[in-house]
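Memo to structure team: turn this sequence into structure tokens by end of day. - J.P.
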Amino acid sequence: MRLIIAILLPFLVFFTIGRPIAGIICLILQVTLIGWLPAAIWAVYALSQYNTDKKISEALANRR
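Reply from structure team:
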């Protein structure tokens, strides 16, 4: 679901993963039509990093 949001409304993803300042910057970038594509790519990348960090944290927690 977050992936669809990252493509359609990139700024919203940053708020859902706990990065509101990046969300505001992304919103400013998304306001322009040319900036929407980089904003969507940035949001998808940030979402993948968030998921990777979450998996690493869970693996380390299960290890102990």
